[in-house]
Amino acid sequence: ILESGLLLVTGPxxxxxxxxxxxxxxxxxxxxxxxxxxNVDISKHNDAYFARSKEKTSEGEVEFFSGDAPKxxxxxxxxxxEQEKVDxxxxxxIAGTDMLxxxxx
Length: 105
Fold this sequence. Notes:
- The protein is built from 4 helices and 2 strands; from the N terminus they run βαβααα.
- With 105 residues, it is mainly alpha-helical.
- It has a two-stranded antiparallel sheet with strand order 1-2.
- The longest helix is centred in the C-terminal third of the chain and has 19 residues, at 77-95.
- The relative contact order is 0.23.
């Protein structure tokens, strides 16, 4: 649980495409499946890690309604490396649990 009360969740991305993200607990479905995540280092992941940049966009009303395709999200190399680091720790635990990878995919 993060400082804001939101939960930190991940797929892992390699299995089902869910990246590290914050989720309200009311959107999470609890199951009886339990895995040990004590070896996963999430000390760097707090609410500030997920905050959006404060840079101004020059997009005005005309550009917004012009009908162009939406701009794809740009994921930084730092976030990709953090995702791989967390996934690596989780995949070891998932591989040691019977049928868990199939359950998550």
